[in-house]
Amino acid sequence: MTNRSTGTRRRPSRRPAALLLAAALAAPLLAGCGSADAGAPPILRASAPASRPAVDSAQLTATAAATDAFGLDLLHALTARPDDAGRNLVLSPSGLATVLAMLLPGARGATADELAKALHTELTPQQYALATGELNRRSTSGNGVTLRQSDDLWAQQGLAVSPDYLATLAAAFDTGVHPTDFAKDPDGSRKAVNAAVEKATEGRIKDLFAPNAITPDTRMVLTDALYLKAKWATAFKPSQTADRPFHKPDGSTPAVPTMGQSGSFKYADGSGGIVGEPWQAVELPYADSGLVMDLIVPAQGGFAAFGKGLDQPQLDRILGALTERPVDLRLPRFHFDTSNELTSALRSLGVTSVFDRADLGGIAKEPLAVSTVVQKATVQVDEDGTVAAAGSGVGVAAAAAPAADRPVQLHIDRPFLFLIRDTHGGRPLFLGQVTDPQAG
User: Fold this and answer.
1) Distance between the two ends of the chain, CA-based, in angstroms?
2) What's the pTM value of the predicted model, to 2 decimals?
3) How would CATH label the architecture of 60-141+149-227+336-383?
4) What are phi and psi of 310, to 5 degrees?
């Protein structure tokens, strides 16, 4: 597992990373290294070059905004059906954008064009990968925050992976490579991949790839693991938590444990203009970092229309309107998991050829196509702070503010959206909606 904690870089290897990895992939594997009993296959650590290619600030800003837009597109796609619109959901735009950024430098032709369009980027694949990796490295950790992200490539032993492709992943993501024998032991390999993601997420993400998701035809797997544990800058006092009504989309009003505090927060509200539906928003900072949680609460009965109409420019305007205000805040505790196979969602965003007629000639000469795209995510919010994690994977197989002199009230007793983001780089780490705080 190639772990990347913020601000940490490994020493350059003595041999060029691409040559080292390409040679190792062609070498015989240790007996049984693809089996669960033998543990994870040996990893070949790709060290970043002594001098990374420069990424200018405009590319970083554009990539952060693109990830926002991609995340909202996914949210809309995953909640498009009436049965899905009212469910709790958490996803990691950053995690999925990262694994697709790892795939993109190997794509060619229409496959590359479709991926770039879905990711909202006009950068070259190499520029996008480098910008995504730089944003990931720039996330801030502090005394009250643990934030880790790691990326890995699991490749079939003997697959002649392009040295240029490996060099791009090494430079952008410090990506390590696990030579793996999917052909002989697909389920053992699946368990090894899952175990590595589970370890990187402190046990929060289990079984990222379901049984049979990895087959003897699998040639490569890309994974991203993201783990966040963050304390609030100002914790909620447990004595202020009480059962209060929450208005669910189905009209029921259960009593749910709801936290409370009054203080100075960044706050905004509006009706019409930005989205067309009344809304309130508040930003809760985490301790000793640039990380925040933004809560966006549409008016009662307006959640579905608000969420459907929200896009990235509108989200930017909402976040840009936040100003310091005294706020009397109530927020339900919540804790739930989401698991998604994202092939259908990506198809709805115009990504089709990567599954059907893929041109991944930048990875290897062997004809390849994406067989599955998966993500599991979890979020827990309580009086102390937030614990959230996500595992993302790609399987590749053969062929105007009110007056400031009185506190505004934001009693979150109805469905709401949440966003955990890094204010330094602007990238969204987690995005979701809460329609039932008691649902697991």
Assistant:
1) 30
2) 0.86
3) 2-Layer Sandwich (3.30)
4) -75, 125
